[in-house]
Design goal:
The chain has 5 helices and 8 strands; from the N terminus they run H-E-H-E-E-H-E-H-E-E-E-H-E. The chain is α/β, with parallel strands linked by helices and 159 residues long.
């Protein structure tokens, strides 16, 4: 089955970066990255969810962390060199990023935001992130995701 190209996939195409697209059955009652990992039959540690936060100056920052992990907002703030960060409300997601909950890609958002990826990404040969639609994931190397998103890699999760 051929998957419809998403904005994130087209963005990678313009950069001539390699990726694969894969799909899974969406469960409207469980839009978690853990569900995506189970549905894809891959370890949750290699599926990265995209979280959008706002800093104390009202600037937007993006964080990608493993599916089962919890974001450490203090670590995100420290790495982003701001006083504090808080996650944006789900209702704000579409307006800020062009994506909805369960389909938020760190690539090809409406605007370019500072992006931070958990350092554990470097432990994997391939990782999965949302392609920008619920039920569709991009499978790519950590280097491709880091390069395409201009991300900084640091520890962003609670231990």
């Amino acid at each position: 089955m051929s998957l419809k190209k998403t904005n994130a996939a087209r963005f990678l195409d313009t950069l001539k970066l390699s990726y694969e697209m894969t799909s899974y059955e969406v469960d409207e009652d469980d839009l978690s990255a853990i569900h995506a990992a189970k549905s894809l039959g891959v370890d949750a540690s290699c599926v990265f969810k995209t979280l959008v936060a706002r800093d104390d100056a009202k600037h937007i920052v993006v964080a990608c962390i493993p599916a089962a992990a919890e974001i450490d907002l203090k670590a995100l703030a420290r790495i982003a060199k701001v006083k504090r960060c808080e996650l944006v409300a789900v209702k704000e997601l579409l307006g800020l990023t062009g994506y909805i909950r369960g389909g938020c890609s760190p690539l090809a958002m409406k605007k370019i935001y500072p992006t931070f990826i958990d350092a554990s990404i470097k432990e994997h040969e391939k990782v999965y992130v949302s392609a920008g639609l619920r039920g569709i994931q991009l499978c790519l190397t950590p280097d491709v995701l880091i390069q395409a998103s201009h991300a900084t890699c640091e520890v962003l999760t609670k231990i």
